[in-house]
Prior knowledge:
Layout: H1 8-14, E1 18-23, E2 28-31, H2 33-39, H3 43-46, H4 51-54, H5 58-71, E3 75-85, E4 88-98, E5 103-110, H6 113-158, H7 165-186, E6 195-197, H8 199-215, E7 225-229, E8 237-239, H9 241-258, E9 264-277, E10 280-292, H10 320-329, E11 334-340, E12 343-354
Parallel strand pairs: 7-9
Antiparallel strand pairs: 1-2, 1-5, 3-4, 4-5, 6-8, 9-10, 10-12, 11-12
Helix pairs in contact: 6-7, 6-10, 8-9, 9-10
Amino acid sequence: MEDHERDPSQILEELTTAVLLVDDRVRILHVNHAAETLFRVSSRQVVGQTLGTALRGAELLEELIRQTQRTGGAYTQRERRLPVRGDRPVTVDCTITPVSAKRVLIEIAEVDRHARITREQHLLSQNRAVQELIRGLAHEIKNPLGGLRGAAQLLEAELPERDQREYTQVIIREADRLQQLVDALLGPNAPAREEPVNIHEVLERVRSLVIAEDAEGRAEAPAVALQRDYDPSIPPVTAEHNHLVQAVLNLVRNARQATGPGGTITLRTRTQRQFTIADKPHRLVARIDIIDDGPGIPLDQQEQIFYPMVTSRPEGTGLGLPIAQSLVSRLGGLIECVSEPGRTVFTIWLPMETEND
Ligand SMILES: Nc1ncnc2c1ncn2[C@@H]1O[C@H](COP(=O)(O)OP(=O)(O)O)[C@@H](O)[C@H]1O
Ligand SMILES: [Mg+2]
C-alpha cells in the first residue's frame, strides 16, 4: 500500500504513545489504541464525553491543558504520576499541543521502571533528612516522659481506692508506649527487635485501639466503620510488632480524620510477587492497604504530606506520616499513597524475601 493511501488515524493506532484529541470544552474526539490500553477504556465508551467523566487521572491532563491555554504553546511535563491503573499510578511524560483554536492534542508516554525507582529513592532519601529532625524531637520528648511515669507511680501508691488505679495505669501504659516509640525514633542506635510478625495481629491491634478510642469518646473524629479484607495465607514478616502497630495506627487515624460520619475504612492485606521496592527486587512482598472513602488528597500534595509539619488540620502535627514512613523504611519497606475524591489508599509495602536471598 502506498503511504498516501493510508488513513492517518490508522498510523496513530500503531503508536506506543497514548494520544488523545479533545475539543475546547475538553470533550474527547479521539483516543488511540495505546490510550485505550493505558486508561483501560474503549474508544466507544469515551468519545463524546469530557475527560473528567471518562478517565481516571484526568485531573492532571486538565491542569496541563489550562497551562497551555495560559501560555498558548505546547507544554510538556515529565515524570508526573497518573493514577490510571489499579492502585498503582504510572509515571508518565505528558505533552499537550494546541493543534487549532478548538483542538488540543495530548500525548502520554509511560516512562520506564527506572523513573519509578528514582522517585522511590527520592522519597526515602527525603525521609533520611526528616529522620534527623524527628530524632531531635524524640530527645525532647524522652526526658519529661520519665518524670511523668515516675509521678504516676508515686500517685498510684497514694491512691486509697483500687479502681482509681485504672487511671494511673493508663498514664503508665501510654508513657511506656511513647517511650518505646521514642526509642524507635532515636534509632539506629537503638536497634529494633526484629521478629516474625503476623501482620493480621498488627491490624487487629490497631483496630481494637481505634475502636477503644471511639468508645471512650477520645477520638478527634466521629466513629467510622472499620472493615477487614485479609488474605489469611500471608506468612509472617520480619519486623518489630510495636513499630508496625504505630505505623498502621498513624495511617488509620488519618483516614478516620478524613472520613466524615458514616465513612468507611477498609484494612486490606495482599501479597505480590516479583516486586521492586526502591531499587531492591523482591520475590514476594506483603502489602497492607488502608482505604478510606473520604474527600482525598489533591494530586500535587500527595508527596508533600510525607514531609514533617505538613498538615491541613489545625490541631495536626504533620508528624504522623513521616514517622510511619521512617518506621517502615527501616524494614526495607515503603509507604505510598494514591488518592482521588471518595477513595484514598495508603499502601505499606513490606519485603518478605529478597531476590538474592
Ligand atoms: N487518608 C487521608 N485522607 C485525606 N488526607 C489525608 C489522609 N492522610 C493524610 N492526609 C493529609 O496529610 C496530612 C499529614 O498527615 P500527618 O503526617 O499524619 O499529620 P497530621 O495528621 O498531624 O496532620 C494531613 O493533615 C492531611 O491533610
Ligand atoms: Mg496524622
